């Protein structure tokens, strides 16, 4: 199974390593050459320096034949555009897009995109933690 | 008419000013605080500080009314694309126009259905091309919606079409000659019009038909 990870920061690099360990054939794309270091010294997958908006770079990374694409650059709008381009142009079966703004994540999720919103996850986890804690105190 | 102009740089501020002068209602959105301060002197309550790709900012600007027109004219192509998508798909804004900063991103706007775009770089390149025609064909106008383009061809002495009537040219399918300009005067192209060296011919064609037309009119 082939995976392309666009944006090799803290999140993208960890996803790349995770799935490579599962046996996926992974290629990462990042604008910064230094991002390669995040993949570890024993990285056996692919790594391409370039911008995810560049169709040529996406082709070089193997997006047209990928089974899955993860889009996790630092920009919400960049991720949303790249995710849609990958889905529309190459019909990649699984496209997952990181969106920090919960409102935009919802908006595009309602239109059929698989958006992952870490902010929403944090909000839920924090609220749940407080509720649990105060319940325990109330019953104590 | 009510318009939202997203992006208060030179383009956005000038467009907003012109729309206001024409008597339209405008809200201008700018996210850089220092630029917002400058704009506020001129636009007062008609400029809003915020990121125009955030739904709550757009709502404060009145996107839900909805406006007749939304312009995505920031310096960031991804932002412009998302603004226009949210406006059309989320709020049924009837008309959106996006600025394309990097012409290489044009294909993404086309693919994602943002059909009305303006790209200064492409326009300048078009003008340069007009001055320095390459391969004898000058692109004058691209009609994206209609999927047609209008080009100008300069007929040289060695043109295979020189001396022939238009009726006898066997123009490729999807192309048509519009007019022939000779010695400063332009005439509509008729079947009986004879092409001569020195003529400037206007043609309308489907994209991708250029090479066939070039072969027929410019090189044998």
Write the layout of secondary structure elements.
The complex is a heterodimer of chains A (140) and B (220).
Chain A: E1 2-6, H1 10-21, E2 25-30, E3 46-49, H2 55-60, E4 68-71, H3 76-90, E5 94-98, H4 102-109, E6 114-116, H5 118-139
Parallel strand pairs in A: 1-2, 1-4, 2-3, 4-5, 5-6
Chain B: E1 2-6, H1 10-21, E2 25-30, H2 33-43, E3 47-49, H3 55-60, E4 69-72, H4 77-91, E5 95-99, H5 106-111, E6 117-118, H6 120-131, E7 137-143, E8 148-154, E9 175-182, E10 185-188, E11 200-205, H7 210-217
Parallel strand pairs in B: 1-2, 1-4, 2-3, 4-5, 5-6
Antiparallel strand pairs in B: 7-8, 8-11, 9-10, 9-11
Q: Keywords, please?
A:
heterodimer; A: 140 residues; alpha/beta; six-stranded parallel β-sheet; 5 helices; 6 strands; B: 220 residues; five-stranded antiparallel β-sheet; 11 strands; 32% helix
Commentary on this structure:
The complex is a heterodimer of chains A (about 140) and B (about 220). Chain A is of the alpha/beta class. Chain A contains 5 helices and 6 strands, in the order βαββαβαβαβα. Chain A has helices at about 10-20, 55-60, 75-90, 100-110, 120-140; strands at about 1-5, 25-30, 45-50, 70, 95-100, 115. The longest helix of chain A is centred in the C-terminal third of the chain and has 22 residues, at about 120-140. Helix content of chain B is about 30%, strand content about 25%. Chain B contains 7 helices and 11 strands. In chain B, strands 3-2-1-4-5-6 form a 6-stranded parallel β-sheet, sandwiched between helices. In chain B, strands 7-8-11-9-10 form a 5-stranded antiparallel β-sheet. Chain B has about 220 residues and is an alpha/beta fold. Classes of the chains: A alpha/beta (about 140), B alpha/beta (about 220). The interface between A and B is medium-sized, with 18 and 19 residues.
């Amino acid at each position: 199974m082939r995976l392309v990870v666009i944006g090799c920061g803290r999140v993208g690099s960890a996803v790349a390593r995770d799935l490579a360990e599962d046996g996926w054939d992974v290629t990462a794309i990042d604008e910064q050459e230094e991002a390669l270091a995040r993949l570890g010294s024993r990285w056996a997958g692919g790594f391409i320096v370039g911008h995810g908006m560049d169709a040529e770079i996406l082709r070089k990374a193997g997006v047209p034949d990928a089974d899955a694409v993860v889009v996790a650059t630092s920009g919400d709008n960049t991720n949303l555009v790249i995710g849609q381009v990958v889905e529309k142009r190459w019909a990649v079966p699984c496209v997952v897009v990181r969106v920090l703004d919960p409102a935009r994540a919802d908006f595009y999720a309602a239109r059929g995109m698989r958006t992952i919103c870490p902010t929403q996850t944090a909000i839920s986890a924090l609220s749940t933690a407080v509720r649990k804690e105060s319940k325990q105190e109330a019953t104590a | 008419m009510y318009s939202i102009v997203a992006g208060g740089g030179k383009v956005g501020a000038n467009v907003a000013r012109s729309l206001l002068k024409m008597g339209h209602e405008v809200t201008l959105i700018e996210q850089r605080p220092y630029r917002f301060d400058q704009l506020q002197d001129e636009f007062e309550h008609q400029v809003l500080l915020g990121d125009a790709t955030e739904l709550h900012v757009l709502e404060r600007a009145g996107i839900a009314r909805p406006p007749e027109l939304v312009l995505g004219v920031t310096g960031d192509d991804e932002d412009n694309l998302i603004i226009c998508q949210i406006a059309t798909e989320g709020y049924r804004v009837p008309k959106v126009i996006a600025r394309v900063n990097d012409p290489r991103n044009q294909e993404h706007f086309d693919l994602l259905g943002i059909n009305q775009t303006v790209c200064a770089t492409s326009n300048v390149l078009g003008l340069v091309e007009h001055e320095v025609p390459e391969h004898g064909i000058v692109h004058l106008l691209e009609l994206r919606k209609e999927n047609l383009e209008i080009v100008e061809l300069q007929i040289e002495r060695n043109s295979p079409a020189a001396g022939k009537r238009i009726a006898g040219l066997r123009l490729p399918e999807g192309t048509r000659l519009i007019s022939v300009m000779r010695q400063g005067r332009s005439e509509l192209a008729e079947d009986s019009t004879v092409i001569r060296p020195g003529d400037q011919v206007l043609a309308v064609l489907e994209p991708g038909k250029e090479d066939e037309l070039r072969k027929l009119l410019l090189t044998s």
